[in-house]
Design a protein that fits this description.
Layout (H helix, E strand, L loop, with lengths): L1 H17 L12 E7 L14 E3 L3 E3 L3 E7 L10 E5 L7 E2 L3 H8 L3 E6 L8 H17 L11 E6 L1 H11 L10 E4 L12 H8 L5 H6 L13 E6 L8 H12 L4 E6 L15 H21 L2
Parallel strand pairs: 5-7, 5-8, 8-9, 9-10, 10-11
Antiparallel strand pairs: 1-4, 2-3, 3-6, 4-7
Length: 300
């Protein structure tokens, strides 16, 4: 009898987990694609709480992976696509809105990934979503009028780490064509001045050594794709020498890269419409896309 009760309880827990509430973020995306959730993906982040949104664009407790796709008109499409991983210190997702809309206006298909947060050490689920978004866009290139060889990645802060991770930690055939890293927490040691992000990635009791092994600067090699790196000098959340460390690692391996460090802006400026250097950073992104073909040809 006791065994029957325990089996029933386990089934009830599984049923409750599968019934977790998920949310849709309010954006101007042209399409939302559901990849999977904790009950259908290979890995689970073991999240038990319902998803919720605070302050309109901060998404917590993510347990499903969804793509918010911003598609430019066919007559403006350049063939490029940018897969964007939101930041939020691996504790929530700070959904971007103005940047993907701007990319759409430039003829670039923007894809914002609502990925599953690591939830104190369950990073495999998050990394599965990172790669899954890239795989989906390349597999559906014809549908979205893009070139599968022109799919890049972008991320802010914690999302910048994921963009760098995708550029280095996955097999060469699955790596993005390029990356745009915006005040990215690419280092996980003394370049990153908080323990909380590292514990989300590596678990509650992650050691300094384990965190250092997660640093993407240690992963850079000759097949790492080109990168545009943007930061501000007065960023106290992710120190600017994290950007220079990644840039130096790229240059040691002869990888084309462009580094821009603005005099001010602190952390989290990519969505600020009134930021003093907004035109400069968007101009740098536009110049980067304009130069990608030349960069590609120079590596042949």
């Amino acid at each position: 009898m006791r065994r029957i009760i325990l089996t029933f309880a386990a089934a009830l827990i599984a049923l409750c987990a599968s019934a977790q509430k998920t949310i849709t973020v309010e954006t101007s995306a042209d399409e939302i694609v559901h990849l999977w959730d904790n009950t259908t993906a290979k890995y689970s982040n073991e999240m038990e709480k319902d998803e919720l949104v605070k302050k309109k664009y901060k998404v917590y407790n993510t347990s499903s992976a969804d793509l918010y796709i911003f598609t430019p008109p066919k007559e403006k499409a350049t063939g490029y696509s940018l897969v964007i991983y939101p930041g939020g210190g691996f504790r929530y997702l700070s959904f971007p809105t103005s940047f993907p809309e701007w990319l759409r206006e430039q003829g670039i298909t923007a894809v914002v990934v609502k990925y599953r947060l690591p939830n104190l050490g369950h990073s495999d689920a998050m990394f599965e979503d990172v790669v899954g978004a890239l795989d989906y866009m390349r597999a559906n290139a014809e549908k979205y009028n893009i070139d599968p060889q022109k799919v890049g990645v972008c991320g802010n802060s914690a999302g910048g780490y994921l963009a760098a991770w995708a550029s280095n930690a996955v097999e060469d055939a699955k790596k993005p064509a390029f990356s745009i890293i915006v005040y990215g927490s690419v280092e996980r040691n003394n370049y990153y001045n908080t323990y909380r992000g590292n514990s989300q990635l590596g678990g509650k009791y992650v050691t300094a050594y384990q965190a250092d092994q997660l640093s993407t600067t240690n992963m850079v090699g000759p097949t790492t794709p080109p990168a545009l790196i943007l930061h501000s000098d007065d960023d106290t959340v992710v120190q600017p020498f994290a950007a220079t460390a990644y840039y130096r690692a790229l240059k040691r391996h002869g990888i084309p890269a462009s580094l821009h460090i603005y005099p001010s802006g602190g952390h989290g400026w990519s969505g600020r419409l009134s930021w003093r250097y907004r035109a400069d950073w968007l101009g740098a992104v536009k110049d980067w896309f304009d130069s990608l073909e030349e960069i590609k040809n120079s590596r042949k």
